[in-house]
Specification:
21 strands; 482 residues; alpha+beta; 9 helices; 30% helix; 21-stranded antiparallel β-sheet
Length: 482
Amino acid sequence: MNRKMWLGAGVGLAGLVAAAVGTVWWSGARAEHNFREFVAQVADNPSRPADLSIVRYDRGLLGASAVTRVTPRRMPQLVLELEHVIEHGPHPEFGWARITTTPHLSAEAARTLGPWFDGHSPLTVTTTFAFDGATHVDIVSPAFAHPGQAAWDGLTGSLDYPGDRQLVLALQAPRLQVEGPGGSFRAAGLKVDGHWTMAGISTLQWEGESRLALAEFTVFSPFGRFSVRDVALAGYQKDAGGMLTAGSTLRVAAADLLARTTPEPILRNGELAIDVSGIDQRALSDYMAGLARVDRASPAPDAYREETQQLVERLLDGVAAGKPQVRLRRLSLETPGGLLSASGALGLGPVELGAPEARGVTALTSRLQGSFTVEGGPGLVGALIARRMGPAAIEAIQLAGGVVEPASVEAMAQDLAAARLQELVAAGVLHEQDGKILLEVVVSDGEARWNGLTREAFTAALMHGPSAEGVLPPAPNTAIDR
């Protein structure tokens, strides 16, 4: 190879090296820009639970290191610092950049947690930025086992941003068990997953759904055992023509309280499903933007309260201008006394023509309209009434010359409750149909009626009987059309 060829090869090699160095430098600059931009976006989100700030960012050619500080807004004394190791690409394994994040533990925290995790970080989050623009996050907490003290089967999870503002979440934690001389607790089978479209930095602007499942949560103590099994929580949120719609469903297969002597199931097959609809998205967006503006201005406390109060009033005005509704799709649970269920909806009625303009909370409450139906077995309703019959039971036992003791008071309270329930049904304070006790709560113009009675009259009837002063029950009714 002659001198010119060697010279040409050298120039070509130098060019490749320069291109590689330039690409790595560009990748590092891009990584730092994205890092700082993310922290700035978090700072601009008024619904953030904590403040995030950069303590330092030191960038080299092949990588960088950084430290950020997380300060909870409600508990600013609990400051957490995170250490980040940034690797610059391009790299065939991860793409443009990879960031490994671990908590920076104080000396005291390291002494406490170090032995549990055998010197490893209790949590490691690894973020990779691929060539195709996708972002992938791995979340890992290592497992440990210390017999007689604690066992943690670890945690694994992932966050994926495949593009088009999509977010996919998956998280699993098989088991956590802690034991001690005063008791123990166990949580098993935790799973979290979700799929969201991020229309903005605020979670109020996201659309999608999330699900959480927990197979078991049990607490043992000297007083007994409390256990919840097969818990499932699901929630969704979407934009319906400029109106925000959201909902949540909670299901619990069983919740038991095992005392020292006899087991007492609290509930089984519990379900709660609620929807909220008709919330003006523009009003929410204006409110969030206003909060961010006030937060950045950092006014004096009095000015801050005044400005945020004005924002809340404008938000309520925006909500009132729409047609918001809260719908209780289903409340159902099985108890030792029988089945309890409820359903209904609550919304805002129209503004009367010619009525003066009302604003704020008063405007909303005065327009509330809706109804709810509650059904319960006689045994359950009787048990609820019996809880209020303690003083009357003691008085009845004393008048009869009996001995006041827990067993006799409980038996007398149950007898009095059964009699009271018959009186209430006969007087129409409570309705009975198909072996169930029914309660209809109707709300009109912000005022509620309980089977036709005011809340005060209904409460007086339950406590003192339908003939109590101030109780004007409707005509007796043992069945109602539904």
